[in-house]
Amino acid sequence: MPTSDLSAFGLRDLRRPLLFTRLGLVAERLWRAFWPGLSIIMVLLAALMLGLHDLVPVEVVWGVAGLGLIAVVGACVWGGRRFAWPSRAEALARLDATLPGRPIQALIDDQAIGGDDPASVAVWQAHQRRMAARAAQAQAPQPDLKIAARDPYALRYVAALALAVGLIFGSVLRVQSVADMTPGSAQAAIGPSWEGWIEPPRYTGLPTIYLADARDETIEISEGARITLRFYGELGALSLTETVSGLAADPDAAGDPAQDFSVVQSGEISIEGPGGRAWQVVLVDDANPLVDITGAPEAEAMGQMSLPFTASDDYGVVA
Predict the structure, then answer these.
(1) Could you tell me if 253 and 231 are in contact, meaning their C-beta atoms sit under 8 angstroms apart?
(2) Which residue from 229, 222, 223, 236 is spatially nearest to 260, judged by alpha carbons?
(3) Model pLDDT, residue 114
């Protein structure tokens, strides 16, 4: 549909809604073509953020990584074959379908009969002017992103839920640790290594601490903080000693590759072995929220009572 066909009727204002309609069609087709690949990526990221790769042998991790890569590439190839860039005519047709009487199509049509009759021509031109006024009200429609027919088992929602669980209960920093898991002799050549994170309670709004970058030997931690440690290399080369969880020490579990515990008291955390470090942990008291009455209660006409107050907390009050 040439631009001049519409410009003749003063419809240059259609360029903006036409652009957004076309972008909406692009979003629809991208989502319909590539949702399987995106779902696979979300599941893999969720597994990494939850640290599931630390619970299985490195050979299993790389095997799953290979299968995941093949699945993602296959899904992208499948989607690429089904994706077609929307044409300008398709965008105009979608935009025209949102208007009563399809005025855009009417503006493009030519008078079929009566072109030699002045009265017929005048009627046609009046009709074109009415259609032009109606088309000038066009607004880009919302893209249709519903794909329930293509995903009857709602696998995309399962993948999104897994990613949300990984973001809430896991750590984005764990994703990069998979790069250090090399099979066979390469891991032995690297030697034992470790990583650790301190995740304060979410209500504090404090950032996660990466222990390898913590230079101070004394760390202040909020009560309820979660500490996660990962040991790499030969089993038993590194071990953990801690007195902050309040749990009885288990010598058999000190060298486990995955260590997770909560801080309930002040104490010490010590990683023993090559490259090991130790920290003194000081538990920061969490003060109780305070609520102060700031005025006398007032009765309203409808029998309700209002009581002005202020609330405060050492980590802030949001609700």
Answers:
(1) no
(2) 229
(3) 65
